[in-house]
């Protein structure tokens, strides 16, 4: 099989290189004179080797700014998950071994599970109240309709 540098380039390949040269000029990597010269060479290039030579001194892509987390975040998160999980497993084993899984422990666990699921997916804590949802008296959509009108009034429940 022939090496890539000796294969013939298509019009689409020439246009991709031309676009890359235009981007490099817009980023300030090439001067306008260099762009004109390289565009002429790109449109007259026959092989991939000739096209590759035109962009060899340009970076492949602009480096994106990474939103690096501090190095302590990942171990802290693992610790925040591991400690409560270990305590729950230890408590479950202790309740099973001592036979205290009956009665009040079961009711507390069921209540905690049942009422704890109500706030999942309701957003941050400051958005859970009536006022934050726009249901507090005096802040609802009915104020836009004027006094005495109930157009657009949301339900309280």
Task: Give structural notes.
By secondary structure, the protein is mostly helical. Among the domains are: about 5-55; about 70-100. The protein has helices spanning about 10-25, 30-45, 50-55, 75-100, 105-115. Helix 1 packs antiparallel against helix 2 (about 30-45). The longest helix is centred in the middle third of the chain and has 26 residues, at about 75-100. The radius of gyration is 33 Å and the shape is rod-shaped. The protein starts with 10 loop residues before the first helix and ends in a 41-residue tail after the last helix. The model has no long low-confidence stretch (mean pLDDT about 75).
Features:
157 residues; mainly alpha; 5 helices; 0% strand
Helix content: 40-55%
Oligomer: single chain
H/E element order: HHHHH
Please tally the β strands and state the result. Answer: 0
Kindly name the structural category: mainly alpha
Question: Main beta sheet: strand number and arrangement?
Answer: none
User: Could you report the average pLDDT, rounded to the nearest whole number?
Assistant: 75
Count the helices. How many? 5
Radius of gyration from CA coordinates: 33 Å
Structural topology:
Layout: H1 11-26, H2 32-44, H3 48-54, H4 73-98, H5 104-116
Helix pairs in contact: 1-2
Provide a brief overview of the structure:
The protein is mainly alpha-helical.
